[in-house]
Write a structure and sequence with these properties.
The chain is α+β, with helices and mostly antiparallel strands. The chain contains 2 helices and 8 strands, in the order E-E-E-E-H-E-E-E-E-H. The chain has a single domain, classed as Nucleoside Triphosphate Pyrophosphohydrolase (Alpha-Beta Complex). Helix content is 20%, strand content 37%.
Length: 137
């Protein structure tokens, strides 16, 4: 039986309405694919606390999260199953810096589909792109 991993991801938007995208390093599982930054939820930790901790550890900045989940998706990979919970966030202090990832970029929603995303992140990417279409009408 495959292990189920509960993961939180931050959809961080800046003042220019760009979204932070992180390239997984060659050493990580699912290497060289893009994702929203975040990480595993530890035992006894709520998803919002986990996300703030992970972003501080990974990107060396502090975020504020929305109070609701943006996207909740379970994806089965070859060796494990991931429950990826995406939450909209904004930076309240610091500047995101690379530590675990190969690269960080800010992209407009219209350009999100130009990247090769990790499969588990695709539903949130699609929802973000669709959300813009809905609100621009």
């Amino acid at each position: 039986m495959k292990k189920l991993v509960k993961v939180v991801a931050a959809i961080i938007e800046n003042e220019e309405n760009e979204i932070l995208c992180a390239l997984r390093s060659p050493n990580m599982a699912i290497p060289n694919m893009w994702e929203f930054p975040g990480g595993k939820v530890e035992a006894g930790e709520d998803i919002f606390t986990a996300l703030k901790r992970e972003i501080e550890e990974e990107l060396h900045c502090k975020i504020e999260t929305k109070t609701e989940v943006f996207n909740d998706h379970t994806h089965e990979y070859e060796t494990f199953i991931i429950n990826l919970i995406s939450i909209k966030s904004k930076i309240i202090s610091g500047t995101p810096t690379v530590s675990e990832h190969s690269k960080l970029i800010w992209l407009k929603r219209d350009n999100l589909d130009s990247l090769k995303w990790a499969p588990a992140d695709l539903p949130a990417v699609d929802q973000l792109i669709h959300e813009k279409i809905v609100f621009s009408n």
